[in-house]
Amino acid sequence: MTASQPPIAAIATAPGRGGIGVVRVSGPDVAPIARALCGQTLKPRHATYLPFLDATGDVIDHGIALYFPAPNSYTGEDVLELQGHGGPVVMQMLLARCLEAGRGIGLRLAEPGEFTRRAFLNDKLDLAQAEAVADLIEASTEAAARSAARSMEGVFSKAIHELVDKVIHLRMLVEATLDFPEEELDFLEASDARGQLAVIRANLAGVLAQARQGALLREGLSVVLAGQPNVGKSSLLNALAGAELAIVTPIPGTTRDRVRETIQIEGIPLHIIDTAGLRDDTDDEVERIGIQRTWDAVGRADIVLHLVDATDYVRNGLSPIDDQIDDRLSGVLPPGSPILRVVNKIDLAPAAGDAHFSSNRPHVVAANGPNPSEVWISARSGAGIELLRAHLLRLVGWQSSGNEGTFLARERHLTALRNAQSHLDMAAEQADQQAQALDLFAEELRLAQDHLNSITGEFTSDDLLGTIFTRFCIGK
């Protein structure tokens, strides 16, 4: 447990009106505050219904008081929770009374995330579990909430600790050999270091794959609909969302600004952004601004759906009328973000036996070479929409089966795992050298361990802690 810190207090429930509101106090000794507000000594871990009193003994509210003595509390300190009626005025009155009663022991308002930060500093949670608390609160889908709960229970942390234990064991063998150079043994052969390292790398790859899935659940995907005017971008937004969100007309240039909607596919939040049609020959200043905003959205996209008109596409020999758009999209997109060509309006295409519009033909076409893959759809009739949904997830690596054990992960977790993977790869290269440099081998293992430890907070800078916890809500 860390050195004693001054007690803190905050309203722990969301702003606004509700049936119940909670004021939380945490610190080294909150029993006097409890007696001042409740008029009696509270029995630990028992709910007591009573009046909450002001300094003159008048009743502020009636509610339930809970007292959790250290170390058996959320923060590891003494914790007092007052559950009253959830009106903003009565909550402020209770908080003010707590601060008044605790003035003599230095009670102050809590900073954002300070309760959970104290739980981390007092070894009640590791850093990955602490972050999962905020992720559970902010979860936008049921799948994300379940994954955050698993992370909060320690599933992610357990996987990291198992990796660290294996790295430590291998480091112990390497460094013991370095301490006794007179032992003329081939260390890598005698201890099966290569085999142990291969197991660690395989396990890390599995954890990284799960973390990527968890990151998708947490962050979702930014999907930008791009293309020339009147190719059906707004119709596709409406079809994906299942509601008439965007105005659809046959007039080119109807969409002047970005229209954003979040949908779910298999629990993954997809932030769909409908944009102004891409063309260079407009004299409309408003439309020009909308087109620039389209390119700005493309520059931040996880994936771009490039829509083309099916009739024009076939007439032009399976090439968009403006085939330079693909090149421009590729030049603006962030590295690694894919482009999916969506051939829309197949219901309006000529039906004279054209194989591309045969009802027996799959709507998904896998392209070869540098061209993006294609999905053939009708946003108006719904043909191919489900295939498009599935293809979107495949493009970003989502695996729909076997995700019951997925834990939520953040970008910093992915970065740490990738860095650890890189150092383990370097260790494997050292192991394959003819002249084995065990000191370099050991150093790569140490660096990999440091990156893994940063996930759970066993090796973490104060600056990073400040960044993480200040993003929490104040009562947490």
From TrEMBL:
Domain TrmE-type G span(s) in chain numbering: 220-397
Chain sites annotated for binding Mg(2+): S234, T255
One Pfam family in the UniProt entry: TrmE_N
Entry keyword annotation includes Hydrolase: yes
Top EC class for this record: hydrolase
UniProt xrefs under InterPro entries: G_TrmE, GTP-bd, GTP-bd_TrmE_N, GTPase_MnmE, MnmE_dom2, MnmE_helical, P-loop_NTPase, Small_GTP-bd
Residues binding (6S)-5-formyl-5,6,7,8-tetrahydrofolate: R24, E81, K124, K476
Entry's cofactor comment: Binds 1 potassium ion per subunit.
HAMAP family per UniProt: GTPase_MnmE (MF_00379)
Complex formation: Homodimer. Heterotetramer of two MnmE and two MnmG subunits.
Source organism of this protein record: Cupriavidus malaysiensis
Record's protein name: tRNA modification GTPase MnmE
Residues noted as binding K(+) in the record, renumbered to the chain: N230, T249, I251, T254
Keywords: Cytoplasm, GTP-binding, Hydrolase, Magnesium, Metal-binding, Nucleotide-binding, Potassium, tRNA processing
Cofactor field: K(+)
Record's subcellular location: Cytoplasm
PANTHER family assigned to the protein according to its UniProt record, in alphabetical order: TRNA MODIFICATION GTPASE GTPBP3, TRNA MODIFICATION GTPASE GTPBP3, MITOCHONDRIAL
E.C. number(s) listed in UniProt: 3.6.-.-
SUPFAM superfamilies: P-loop containing nucleoside triphosphate hydrolases, TrmE connector domain
Residues the record lists as binding GTP: 230-235, 249-255, 274-277, 378-380
Family: Belongs to the TRAFAC class TrmE-Era-EngA-EngB-Septin-like GTPase superfamily. TrmE GTPase family.
Highest taxon in the source lineage: Bacteria
